[in-house]
Amino acid sequence: MYMAVKEVKTQNDYTLLLRYKNGELRQFDMKPYLELGIFQELKDPLMFNTVKPSFDSIEWANEADLDPEILYKNSIRIND
Prior knowledge:
Blueprint: E1 5-10, E2 15-20, E3 25-29, H1 45-48, E4 52-54, E5 57-59, E6 65-66, H2 68-73, E7 75-78
Antiparallel strand pairs: 1-2, 2-3, 3-7, 4-5, 5-6
């Protein structure tokens, strides 16, 4: 089972702050993905900043998205 993303905010270092529906805050590093396929377009800060919650995950304006299980598994919990 995975947790559903409620809110996403971009950071200047190509990380994402993800707020989950259970209130948990996690940080996900996008840098390892920026050389892969459609994710290369996210090197442009304007495109990177178009991210938004989509269903239980996130999506960018170029239709790139990530599996919610990957987001949760590969992110670190942040105390807020």
